[in-house]
Amino acid sequence: MNEKFLSLDNIEKRFKIQGHEDYIAVTNVNLEIKKNEIISIIGHSGCGKSTLLNMISGLDAQSEGHILLENKEVKGPGPERAVVFQNHSLLPWLSVYQNIEMAVKKVMPSLSSAELRERVEKFVSMVNLDHAKDKLPGEISGGMKQRVGIARALSIKPKVLLMDEPFGALDSLTRANLQEHLMRIQQSVKNTVIIITHDIDEAVLLSDRVIMMTNGPEATIGEILEVNLERPRNRVELQSDPEYIRCREAILSFLYEKFAKDD
Amino acid sequence: MNSETVKKIVLPLLVFMIIIQFWYEISNIVSGFPTPSETYKAAFGGINEDGETIKGVLSDPFYVNNQDDKGIFWQIIASLKRVFAGFVLAILVGIPVGLFVGMSKNAQYALNPFIQIFKPVSPLAWLPLLLFIFQDINMTAISTIFITSIWPIIINTALGVRSVSQDYMNVAKVLQFSPLEKIVQIILPVSVPYIFTGMRLSLGIAWLVIVAAEMLTGGIGIGFWIWDEYNNLNYHNIIIGIIVVGLIGFFLDIIMGKIADYFDYTKKGRA
């Protein structure tokens, strides 16, 4: 197995500010991500975690350094790095089905209409939305919208799934439900996933490794935590698992003792 | 019937009666000004003060005496044809220009001053110039409508394009949409409600312009007809003309509104 699947090499992001020195948001980020690994990036707001994700997705360009996916330099956005946006970003004039269809049609233009329908329906089913496939995004709940967002991202067969605080806007019960969906999907279809989050439990529950970012400006990777928990994981049983508790405490101590932020 | 519905019927009726009363007062003060009843007879026929039975303008709208003397239906049709010709031209040119202005900052910088300068110019100012260019009544009327009704379409289309959220554009970027795919799949659907608002304003302007344009160009059309009735001293027909123009404008607006709602995704699928 080629261990070097996705690598970030000395990434820095500077923003120009008129009449001032450049603002260095993120600097000196080095990270190797293995195939089918799930990692979370956690940090206080303003630590540049979304900036980092945007550079991996190509929506934003790094000022320094290289991002390599399967030894190829990442330049600009592309469907092999699918993004699940925080606000779901579904097109409101298209139904659930059509939102996914639009993506599949674009990325896999060679599919016959039967294959296209089969693929779209497979991903609608994967997030349990068969009953709502003809509904418009305005007619379904926030959690369901985010499920469509996940299905749309996965339907285009990405090499990496990038999730920018995917459940941040949802209430905690819906969030838990979506985490379960994500873990279940990940059990059947292996993906390389990068999740930006500010939720400690979410990070531990979902990830193989948790990347902890120091505070900005000049934010960088502070610590990397390995989560040695068997899958499938059960959130209730985990509460008393010593490894789970160790991981939670490690992140808590990083965020609230070493890099506390008062605002 | 609930009280809201009753109010919606009774209150306009009250205002209508006030208007009729006001009209009577004017016809008392201004000698020769047609009274409401004279105007009614002129519109729907009846027996005039000389005891002759007359045909009304609206009860006999389809007559054709000769090239210069046709019923009001033919006048309206002639005007509507010009309005739609100018309006369709304004749509065909205005939407692409609006898309261009909305999508390109440079295009906006380049064109915006001229849009702002030409927009407030009265159709009557364009008319002599266009008449000089085309030397033709139809072409002059159509081009006047085109040039005065295109601005709201351009401005609103550009506004619609600028309202496209960055989130949707990010989706388009990740899927690597071509510029054309961006326009068709994202920008147009978002802009459609704005474009239709522009078209609705534009059609309103077009219908305003036609009356003035036809008064000056002559020939046939509701504007010409009103001016012709003035020259014939048929003042009651002017009032009929005003009401007819108003009603048609009102219906055009309703139709445009219905079409706009049909294409507006924000008005669909709302439970």
Can you walk through the features of this model?
The complex is a heterodimer of chains A (263) and B (271). The model of chain A has no long low-confidence stretch (mean pLDDT 91). Chain A is α/β, with parallel strands linked by helices. Helix content of chain A is 36%, strand content 23%. Chain A folds into two domains: 177 residues, Rossmann fold (3-Layer(aba) Sandwich); 67 residues, no CATH class. The longest helix of chain A is centred in the last third of the chain and has 17 residues. In chain A, strands 6-7-8-3-9-10 form a six-stranded mixed sheet, sandwiched between helices. A four-stranded antiparallel sheet of chain A has the order 2-1-4-5, with helices on one face. Chain B is mainly α and 271 residues long. Chain B has two domains: 52 residues, no CATH class; 202 residues, MetI-like fold. In chain B, the strands form two sheets. In chain B, strands 1-2 form a two-stranded antiparallel ribbon. Chain B has a two-stranded antiparallel sheet with strand order 3-4. Chain B is globular and about 80 Å long. Chain B starts with a helix and ends in an 8-residue tail after the last helix. In chain B, 32% of the residues are buried. At the A-B interface, strand 6 and helix 2 of A face helix 7 and helix 8 of B.
